Amino acid sequence: MGYWKNKLLEWDQRGYGSIGTVVCHGCFGDYAIKEYIKRHGKRQKCDYCHNIRKSHSLEEVIGLIVESAYAEYEDANGCMGYESKEGGFIGANTFDAYDFIHDELNQEMEIENEDLLNDITNTISDSITWCEYNPYGLRLHEYDYQEWEKFTNEVKKTPSKKIMSYDILKKISLYIEELDLIVQSGKGCGFYRSRGHTKLETYSSAKSLGAPPTDSATANRFSKCGESMFYGAEDIDTTLEEIADQKYEAVTTAKFYPTRSLLLLDLTKIKKIKWISLFDERRELRSPLIFLREFQKAIAQPVNGVIEEYLPTQMFSTYLRTIFKTATGACLDGIIYESSRIANKKCYALFFNNDDMVENKSNKFNKLWVDKSTIKRM
């Protein structure tokens, strides 16, 4: 009697009971559960689809499901107000076990076999009323975006405020590394740049076609007025579109190359990152990914000539250029971002100034050199 009493207590504490069936990876659409079964299972007949392939104890798979669920959900009995006159829990959505598994979790598990779905439902404790974690508060990505919006508003009002006082920039830099957004660009990777001018003007030198001198550097997406920075793109058409509003009489284009490999923050990778499963060991990065997707959209928006709208991204760039270091202590050389004019085209803001522009391939370590054969007047 004591054994079963202890077993019932154990099942109650962990949130699910016992079941003796085995299930194969093919019965789940979710990649993380598939990988878990392949890693821990053995080749045998599945009790649900009856195929012979890598299968594992359903009870242990349910253990993974429940453990993962608690990362983003919790029992309403311990965190929500209850008012019988109002019909139960108040102030946030709740789910009984059936609705939670069928309507919430199965959006991620992607189970089509009804017998399997019912066995999971019947094994997970029905004494739990599920709700989102911290039901009366913001989700992490919502809080982070609120902090970013607060940051943008404060920067526009008080642009001279010290950069170290903004915790959201530190948090973004942490997410950048966790989601592997820092890439290395080799010496053979070139960057196109276009300069608009009058028909009477002619430009052919690295310094005249590259990053402008400080006394003529205007405010841009990632640099303040008077800050010399190299802006380029992956192809000529994108550079032309980026300066199209200026209505120049003529344009000269050229391609620049770095004299060393560059370490760049690639913001265009954000939307290419595969959605992270709730059942993935990296599930804690789901909220940061949601936030960074919204962040990437926000900083890529056209400003329509309102220079003050650049202040938040300028501050972000200054933080990356002067304070941020990777886990290995390396500094960044620039930012890759999506063109606001042409979808899916890359633009570059490189932390090189006019003094770093050189005419020929150089042995100097920290320069951008212009390929004279690419200079073209239009």
Automatic annotation (TrEMBL):
Cross-referenced Pfam families: HEPN_RES_NTD1, RES
Domain RES: 213-359
Domain HEPN/RES N-terminal: 40-157
Protein name, per record: RES domain-containing protein
Taxonomic source organism: bioreactor metagenome
